[in-house]
């Protein structure tokens, strides 16, 4: 089983790339979705997060992820506390999910905070998706984020240079879907399939 980290700055297009890899035959997991599952109402993490951050983060009995996001992006200490609660459970959920996969699977693990979490050693290979800040800003505004939220979230993440230093390969995504798909197909055929074949020996 080949485990590939897929990272990149917010709005760079990681999910598009992950979708293309899935269409080519990979199994895709999203760390953010696993993190959401980890704090669902009724879970141990839910109780611990509410105890740590208070009822202010609740909305209709569930954790308001937007409110929680505002808190952690404004306060590095709060961010560290949240990660200490959630990350072990996210890793457990991922390890549990992997048990049902075939041994020759190529797994793409979408992880926005690869560099920040110093978790490169958990993966066999790492790819970062990079895009111009202006293009990322437009995409994020289309998602409904305000300008101050975009600035704060970009500032809270590792720089392009830091992400690249943790990765084996860079995908450039400047808005051309065909060019992006061609890059993904080339990486799949020339890099990941041969790696997976050798990895299984």
UniProtKB/TrEMBL annotation:
Record-linked InterPro entries: Depp_CoAkinase, P-loop_NTPase
SUPFAM superfamilies associated with the record: P-loop containing nucleoside triphosphate hydrolases
Nucleotide-binding in keyword set: yes
Record keywords: ATP-binding, Nucleotide-binding
Coiled coil, from the record: none
Recorded GO MF terms: ATP binding; dephospho-CoA kinase activity
Annotated transmembrane regions: none
Record-linked Pfam families: CoaE
CDD domains cross-referenced by the UniProt entry: DPCK (cd02022)
GO biological process, one term: coenzyme A biosynthetic process
Protein name per its UniProtKB record: Dephospho-CoA kinase
